[in-house]
Design a protein that fits this description.
CATH topology of the largest domain: Rossmann fold
Number of domains: 2
Largest sheet: 6 strands, parallel
Shape: globular
Structural class: alpha/beta
Bound molecules: NADP nicotinamide-adenine-dinucleotide phosphate
Number of strands: 11
Radius of gyration: 19 Å
CATH architecture of the largest domain: 3-Layer(aba) Sandwich
Helix content: 40-55%
Number of helices: 10
Strand content: 15-25%
């Protein structure tokens, strides 16, 4: 029997409805409107499209939302001053700097300048550290979305063998840290594999839950998956365009093969992707609530 599809788009919709209800409630009851600024530097088309999507969703949810676009030529000092301005702006609860930043700007320095209380992307070292010690404040949006997807799919994480392919700071490391915690929705035995792993397939074939974030199109084949595994495909690879100019996307997992082996799998598109923006909104709502002590 082919694997069940874990439809992130549907789960994301469900969570957005929950968020909208809360936003309406705190607006009505306390006069609080969650505020989000997205800072885009330069004109990278993919970044522009991500920022547009974040703006659209925040408007739909009734957030106070600003998009601040800066030229690629901006230097570090004015960018730091801009972040400082939003750090002090009481209407802004969440600050997101769209990555990657143009060459010549020190990304770590910029991320460090964001007030950790407004770091809704969860990349500030303070928030990364809190996540690691099991006292998370803001969880990075993609791993947060992955964990939520697995939980809502009904798969059991506790005690499961989880294998993560990839060790980036935005996906691999944080999802591994989250799922190994002594906490509900976690308590897994986690293995992380990367380009220096001797035998990647040896590990992936042991996984009850396989999370693939390698950035290599269709890297994980059917014979690398344990029968009955839950497969979360984080990869987004553009492989062409349709006649009407829409991007054709594929994941890091060979979907047709995986479908025959796994018990459940996220599609690309429509899997992890929609969850990422949704968790950004969830973090921003949390930021507003914490700020106003709600
Ligand atoms: P990344 O920074 O390029 O990291 C890729 C990781 O995979 C690295 O740790 C790398 O190992 C490992 N890797 C690469 N090739 C491998 C191989 N052949 N065998 C084993 N490990 C391998 O990528 P990322 O930012 O984590 O993103 C991963 C994918 O997820 C990309 O396709 C990206 O577009 C997608 N993504 C999607 C979302 C979403 O919202 N849906 C969000 C973020 C990312 P080394 O460390 O040894 O180099």
């Amino acid at each position: 029997m082919p694997a069940k599809l874990i439809k992130g788009a549907d789960v994301a919709k469900e969570i957005r409805e929950e968020i909208k209800k809360e936003v309406d409630y705190i607006k009505e009851k306390h006069g609080v409107i969650p505020g989000l600024v997205t800072i885009l530097v330069g004109e990278d088309p993919a970044s522009q499209s991500y920022v547009r999507a974040k703006q659209k969703t925040s408007h739909e949810l009734g957030f106070y939302s600003i998009q601040d676009t800066q030229p690629a030529t901006i230097s570090e000092a004015p960018l730091l001053a801009l972040i400082d301005k939003y750090n002090k702006d009481p209407k802004i609860h969440g600050i997101l700097v769209q990555l990657p930043l143009p060459k010549g700007i020190n990304e770590q320095k910029i991320l460090l300048a964001i007030d950790p209380d407004k770091d809704v992307d969860g990349f500030h070292p303070t928030n990364v550290g809190k996540l690691l010690i099991g006292n998370p404040y803001y969880r990075p949006c993609t791993p947060f979305g992955i964990q939520e997807l697995i939980i809502r799919s009904g798969a059991r994480i506790e005690g499961a063998e989880v294998v993560v392919v990839g060790r980036s700071n935005i996906v691999g490391k944080p999802i591994a840290a989250m799922l190994m915690q002594k906490a509900p929705g976690a308590n897994a035995t986690v293995t992380v594999v990367h380009t220096r792993t001797r035998d990647v397939a040896f590990h992936t074939k042991r996984a009850d839950i396989l999370i693939v974030a390698a950035g290599v199109c269709e890297y994980v084949k059917g014979d690398m998956i344990k029968p009955g595994a839950v497969v979360i495909d984080v990869g987004v690879n553009e492989v062409g365009q349709t006649a009407d100019g829409k991007r054709i996307l594929k994941g890091d997992v060979k979907f047709d093969e995986a479908l025959e082996v796994a018990s459940a799998i996220t599609p690309v598109p429509g899997g992890v992707g929609p969850m990422t923006i949704t968790m950004l909104m969830k973090n921003t709502l949390q930021a507003a609530k914490v700020h106003h002590k709600l």
